[in-house]
Automatic annotation (TrEMBL), chain A:
Belongs to the TrkH potassium transport family. It is found in: Cell inner membrane. The lineage of its organism: Bacteria, Bacillati, Bacillota, Clostridia, Lachnospirales. Keywords: Cell inner membrane, Cell membrane, Ion transport, Membrane, Metal-binding, Potassium, Potassium transport, Transmembrane, Transmembrane helix, Transport. The chain crosses the membrane at residues 12-32, 38-56, 68-89, 131-150, 181-205, 233-257, 269-291, 328-347, 390-410, 451-471. This is Trk system potassium uptake protein TrkH. GO terms for cellular component: plasma membrane.
Amino acid sequence: MNSSMIRIVLGNVLKIEGVLMLIPVVVALIYGESTVPAFLISAALAIVIGQLMVIKKPKDTVFYLKEGCVSTALSWIFMSIFGALPFTISGEIPNYVNALFETVSGFTTTGASILLEVESLSKSILFWRSFTHWIGGMGVLVFLLAILPMTGGSNINLMKAESPGPQVGKLVPRIGRTARILYGIYIGLTVIEIIILLFAGMSFFDSICTSMGTAGTGGFGIKNTSIGGYSPLIQWIVTIFMILFGVNFNAYYYLLFKHFRQALNVEEVKVYIGIIVASTLAICINIAHMFSNLEQALRASSFAVATVITTTGYSTVDFDTWPAFSKFILVILMFVGACAGSTGGGIKVSRFIISFKTIIKEFHSYIHPKSVKAIRIEGKTVEHETLRSVNVYFMTFICVFTVSCLLISLENQDLVTTFTSVAATINNIGPGLANVGPTCNFASFSVLSKFVFIFDMLAGRLELFPMLMLFNPTIWKSTFTSRINPRRRNWEDCDKVRK
Amino acid sequence: MSIFKNHKEDHKGLNIIVVGAGKVGSTLVEQLSKEGHDITIIDKNKTRVEALSGMYDVLGIIGNGASLTVQKSANVADADLLIAVTGSDELNLLCCTVAKHVSGCSAIARVRTPDYSEETEYLRSKLDLAMVINPEFEAAREIARLLYLPTALEVDTFARGRADMIRFKVPKESPMVNNQIANICGDSKTVGLICGIERNDEVIIPSGADVVLAGDVVSFISSREESKHFLKKFGFETRSVKNTMIVGGGRASFYLTKQLISAGIETKIIENNVNRAKELTDLLPEATIINADGTDMEVLKEEGLEYVESFVPLTGIDEENVMLTLHARQVSNAKVITKVNRTAFKNVINSLDLGSVIYPRYITSEAIIAYVRALKESMGSEIETLYHLFDSRAEGIEFNVRENSKLTNKPLKDIKLKKGLLIALISRKGKIIIPTGNDEIMVGDSVVIITTHTGFDRIEDILA
């Protein structure tokens, strides 16, 4: 285990976070708020500690998948620890555990909050909350790869660990440029949303925060009513952008570089759109009687579907009051999640496509026991390795989910709350149903439960394995054992002494 | 925004497609990605592609590199160079032909079957290829050079064969020992330069005041005739070997024997496979072909390993080659040259006393890297040849100077150069000049630079 390279990655991540924390300082200065020192202290701490970590150059720059996973998991933990400081130092979320929950929820783009109401918070803190979504959406390590020319080619392991989806590939030969293209698309789409929201009559500050929340598929609102208080036009715009950010970014790359046929051929996106349309229609019909006209019903249903499938977590109406059929569709969508390679969470549409096709293949093998059949996606055969990893992912997901539910059940809440609170955090959505529904929050949970949620959010965002790796003792053992010096150790000499 | 600014800077590297992830392919990927190029590797074998794209910052594509669809998915239209190094010559040529038709890229193919070896130049010009490489042939040529001058550990040629850089070990009793370099090279009769000393894992680019010690490995550069005079003066043998024994009758062995026979060196090949041995007698009637197991000590003894002047194990297995070399060094005084294909255990091999070691993979990649660097920067100067010297810790680069620049027409003593760098030689109209402070670089010269820096593309890079 190359612990010095992990140290370098962590140090750089902290430095980047420190610099990014200076942006809310600007917001605080503009609005003349007293949070300036809180952000400056946190930023200085992150930068100084980050700098201390990168001073010593590593001897060996080898970087394998395990190093990639461990440094990704640790980066996200460290980022959250430092990102929570402004909340506590400024006194707006005095309890550090709550601040940590809020920050993790922000970076992992969950959007679950412990705050009873948000309108009393200062603008700069609200901005930081939304900004964490934006940073976490595309991932800070992808950002690191985009700006830092890293030596050694094995950096793909960092991206593999952070980017969601069963297959992580590069768009162009250089990983740095791949990361830059992804961020370029990300920034571009965010800016477009800001502009459109401005034209729709939203204030500048609101449109920036809302756009960042949409872009990262996060869902921290800056109003107590989330998006519900805004005009129908704005609600529609946000709905569309949520769906857009849930699309596999490779499709945008194809569009941008004029590979239109490839862009239209992305099977995952087709299925994703199909699921959205079907669920919206089903829910719309189911809830139509609750609204005065069809537009309202369609708006509410499409917003709810978009917010849940992309795992954003904004809300307009309280879907907890909807009929069970609609609620259940939403619960299913929680697990489906967005496309791989998007900013959304969940299990991902592509995994469901693959496992669905596996089921069909299994049926086929009952009818023709000797048949040879491959699972194909977009005309390409899916490798056995990928199938295996998808199956294992499902199993692991169920295990983590079950254990988390068990731990949360100690709260003695009702079954729906227990189940959906874990589903909402592990899938990075935010609101669940019943006591954690769109109008409620996570403040009432115990400290233990909050840490379970924090773990679930991180595990869900990093696709389980990087976080689970931290519990593997061999990882820690190899981190702390130094390499054997070949000159010092000489078995033959020992033998001579013994004789 | 910085994100977009960097986007352009990044384009400094070339877009290179490598087809074939075999031995040469992976060495190329390793070296070229270190040089900062954007590389796409294509191979049919998934495991190999994944290993390479996991190890280096390159894009891997699985498929047949000669197929247009696969090449298109590797974005061949934007490529600057395609290098085809699959196991099959015909496939390599097809890859290049296909690529040349869809994009304006240059193409390099590996063609190594002896059947085509006479026609490489014809193929190159007809198919409009930038280069045709034949690693076995190049390796054979390098081995032959060493057999012509067995004193040397390594001979690298510059200025189209007019100048040699000779690497040799200084024995205890040599008059060179404990002498200053100024005294060794300074006398007006020798026109040459000691441009590198390797001493205990350390590489020194020496000045006149440095002293040569016993056991040093010294590199000396001069014109071909002068180098022999120089070696003779210090008591080294300078005649070529009279006979040689080769174990293994592969392609490299065929090319080597062909060259040695034409130079009048008696050659014996020991080949285990009857059919191949018969084939070789057809191809090489002047050589002695023995059908026996060359790794058998008795066979070697019977064929006179003790009395042979040089011994070259060229089996396909590195371990066998190394063992045979060690054995030969024990039982005879023959000049031994070891061919090592895999570069993975280089340190282990260097720590053994093997004498001259040849790495065919490096020979090929050096030639290609020289071409790639020249392709990248073909403005004022151009790289003619490039060698990785002293276990890749230094580079010897020969530049063709084609335009006037800050460097030309100025006495060298007035030019501020980077540290760890030496202008070793200037070749002007076929004449070799070992430069002093008063010499000047002129347009049309070719200049040899020895440097511990890496990645020089053009001669202006030597300026401080």
